[in-house]
């Protein structure tokens, strides 16, 4: 298998991990929509994650010993960005509408990446004669 073939699989897996981490963060925001003082957070954009230097030992993850190893899931501490917005009288800054919109966008992106991955796997199987 060529290097570029592996890169596509690695990129798809990394994107799916990022989408999962973002969905978890957005769900956490939504779950705390009534928590006094809660500030909505989001993770770094995927483009920033791709451009960032990958450390040899991701925080809380396994050591990467090969350039093809993927870093661990993005943790809240590493990538959480506070989302500035209006505050409720109790200090809560979660907009349910905004969070639901972001969750729907993340879900759509997940479906698109999964579809591309499945199509590519289908072409790969066809090429192998299976």
Describe the overall structure.
The longest helix is centred in the C-terminal third of the chain and has 33 residues, at 96-128. A two-stranded antiparallel sheet has the order 1-2. Helices cover 55% and strands 3% of the residues. The protein has one domain. The protein has 130 residues and is mainly alpha-helical. The chain is elongated, with a radius of gyration of 18 Å. It has four helices and two strands; from the N terminus they run H-E-H-H-E-H.
Question: Which features does this protein show?
Answer:
single chain; 130 residues; mainly alpha; two-stranded antiparallel ribbon; 4 helices
SSE order and pairing:
Blueprint lengths: L2 H29 L9 E2 L3 H6 L24 H4 L1 E2 L13 H33 L2
Antiparallel strand pairs: 1-2
Helix pairs in contact: 1-4
A few lines on this structure:
The protein is mainly α and 130 residues long. Helix content is 55%, strand content 3%.
Query: Which percent bin holds the helix content?
Result: 55-70%
Low-confidence stretches: 53-61, 73-80
**What is the tally of beta strands?**
2
Distance between the termini: 16 Å
**Largest sheet report:** 2 strands, antiparallel
The best one-word shape is: elongated
Structural class by SSE content: mainly alpha
Tally of helical runs = 4
> Any idea what the radius of gyration is?
18 Å
